[in-house]
Amino acid sequence: MQARLTVLPEPDAEARAHAARVAAHLREAIDAAGGCLAFDRFMDIALNAPGLGYYATGGGPGVDGDFVTAPEVGSLFARCLARQAAEVLDEVGGSILEFGAGSGALARQLLGALDAAGMLPDEYLVLETSVALRERQHREIDALPARLAARVRWLDRLPEAPVAGVIIANEVLDAMPVTRFRVTSEGVEIAGVRAGADGFDWCAAEPGAHDDALAEIAARHGLPPGYQSEYNPRAAAWMRQLGGWLARGAAFIVDYGYPAAEYYHRERDSGTLTCFFRHVAHHDPLVLTGIQDITAHLDFTALADAARSGGLDVLGYTSLAAFLVGSGLADELAAPAATPGAQLALANEVKRLTLPSEMGELFKVLVVGRGVARAPSAFARGDRSTLLGGAA
Question: Are 126 and 172 in contact (CB under 8 A)?
Fold first, then answer.
């Protein structure tokens, strides 16, 4: 469904061997599915298969990883986010629950910033399913003073009681397996993956549970034959369930994506599916199985609608750059850097986080919640919630 990009960094022998093991596992799943495996299942196995998948074996962010998230750029993102989290904690108290904490850098930075502000949570809970990533997170948290590290607790499953306080999902939902589809003259075709002699190729999968939703998307946005894109029902389900996980407080969803009208724009006719390998972005999820990240941008209209259906209010939505500015970025930059080198690093961090050509406009921040008297102050100016419109 997309042209192959062949100019990629060459994996080492160990990585090639692992990719071959994952490919063999995927071929078994394809055979079991009758020769054509729906792409969302392919993506799920490639990323999450126990002991094999990209995340299950410790793939992820960092200079030595395949991509960099805002906490790896520096501490500015966490310091600004801490200001907003402190507002919520000041009003409702409680804990912080972070989903998919990646390298653990955000947890470490947030706890340090909240400690400096005198607004520590009762606990900092981390829900992480990857054993390998947990090990990285422990190393980050162990670098904190013991009194802060003692507040961190890892969870194998959701808490039995809903959380009061703050929930954070930074670059979590984009990695949820997506349904890939193509509009044809006869309707909407679900993308699948088949095994070929030299790897994997696309095929047309059997109709699935989301056919009606896909037909509605195609009709609402006037998508022409040949148009390809993604649909993420798992992310929407996660947002609906969020209403049952949050007793009182706010959830901060930080990720890349668009409102539905932009997501399914007629000119975005190849979709948003993106892969990362050794910091090189490309668009072929059928190669480097188990050793590359596979993501898709988010439809923030669908996420907001799902949150409302789960009983939550939309408290704000804007770009990452506007969120950081509204959260006091200028105040965080007021203190002089210790050295010229530190000043240069800080300037580069600001550019990476705020420039439209970098993370500033591509990344969005959606905050939903219940039982809070006011929206986070970051949205006092520049809130774009009206762009989310109605149902996606």
Answer: no
The CA distance from 233 to 306, in Å, is 10
Amino acid at 309: S
What is the rounded distance in angstroms from the CA atom of residue 211 to the CA atom of residue 187? 9
Any long-range contacts for 208-217 (C-beta under 8 Å, 24+ apart)? 208/38, 208/179, 210/179, 214/179, 214/181, 214/188, 214/190, 215/187, 215/188, 217/264, 217/392
Structure tokens at 340: 């010229």
> 216: part of which helix (H) or strand (E)?
helix 211-220
- Residue 304 near residue 391 (C-beta atoms within 8 A): no
Under CATH, what is the fold of the domain 70-175+234-264+296-373? Rossmann fold (3.40.50)
- Give the whole-angstrom CA distance, residue 285 versus residue 3: 11
41: left (phi over 0), alpha (psi -120 to 50) or beta: alpha
How far apart, in whole angstroms, are the C-alpha atoms of residue 155 and residue 159? 8
Query: At 84, which amino acid appears?
Result: Q
Place of tokens 């989903």: 99
In sequence order, the β-bridge partners of residue 61 are: 67
Q: What is the pTM of this model?
A: 0.94
Q: What is the pLDDT of residues 322-367, one digit of tens each?
A: 999 999 999 998 877 767 788 888 899 999 999 998 999 999 999 9
Burial annotation 219-243 (CB, 10 A radius, 16+ → b, else e): eebebeeebbbbbbbebbebbbebb
pLDDT tens, residue by residue, 23-74: 999 999 999 999 999 999 999 999 999 999 999 887 777 666 667 789 988 9
Q: In this structure, is the dihedral angle defined by the CA atoms of residues 171, 172, 175 and 176, taken in order, positive or negative?
A: negative
Tokens 């409302």, residue?
308
The alpha carbon torsion through 133, 135, 138, 140 (nearest 10 deg) reads: -70
For the chain, give every residue range classified as CATH 3.40.50.12710.
Answer: 70-175+234-264+296-373
